[in-house]
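so my prof wants the structure for this chain in the tokens format not the other one, which i didnt know existed until like an hour ago. anyway here's the sequence
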Amino acid sequence: MKSIDLRVEGMTCASCVRHVNSALASVAEVDEVSIDLATGRVRVSGDADAQALVAALQDAGYPARREASAPEASKARGCGGGSCCCH
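here's what i got, hopefully its the right format
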């Protein structure tokens, strides 16, 4: 099972959170959805396709894009791991 981090725009209230959760839960292979309304960040656990998640959110009226997870972001910055500032 993997986690996919998304940035979702347009969420302003608890109703928006329910709509986003419902849109993501309808995608095959989604096991769990965690939503942070304040930051607009969403983490989806399961084996779902990232493009399918973004498309489901777009169809529900919420523009979204994939964000690099912490390990991916560390690699992009050239971090080799360990106890640096990236962890």
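also thought this was worth mentioning. Strands lie at 2-8, 30-36, 41-46, 64-67.
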